[in-house]
Amino acid sequence: MKKIYKLLFISLFFSCVEEDPVLESIETMIVTNLDATTKSQPGQPQYGKFAKFSFSKHSLVEGDDWDIAFRATTILVNGGFSGGEDEPNRSGIGAGYIQVGNYGSIKTVDESLFKQDSQTSKAIPTGSGNGWYNYNFQSHIITPIAGRTLIFKTHNGRYAKVEIQSYYKDSPEIPNASSSEAQYYTFTYTYQPNEGVLSFD
What we know:
Blueprint: H1 2-16, E1 27-35, E2 51-54, E3 59-60, E4 68-71, E5 74-77, E6 95-100, E7 133-136, E8 141-144, E9 148-153, E10 159-168, E11 182-192
Antiparallel strand pairs: 1-11, 2-3, 2-4, 4-5, 6-9, 7-8, 9-10, 10-11
């Protein structure tokens, strides 16, 4: 009986001194001139390959392990309805939403706000004023809307926040429709690599 008590005490002792799991570091990165150009002609529907991006790899990818995908002003998530022939296959559990607020002030994810792409709408809405940008019909310039941060669940259930800074190559301070190359994204993102952790701190 004494041996049993002793073994029980040792087991309890080691369970108490067990260390907390070591968390991976949160990463903040800047992406410049991500090519999301299309082959469409003015007044015609957009077509062409989506640029698939992975937050964990910090780069474009070719496989199904993408988190978000870009083509012109459209941003997809790797979760939900796998659209027509021109959209990449969605094999993940990704989702997204737009939060109004300064990028730096957004510290946590609100899981209740997440949406996936559907047959009729995108998690990140398209169209001027609906999602991340405004389109000026006089200057024909697309401008990111200040104070709108894109929040994403990745294809494998991690989290990231994104602030789009420019839609033009080399991020001109004042883009010009006739001389600035459009459909090149520059954005900052913060990636939370730890499963189940909703904080960006």
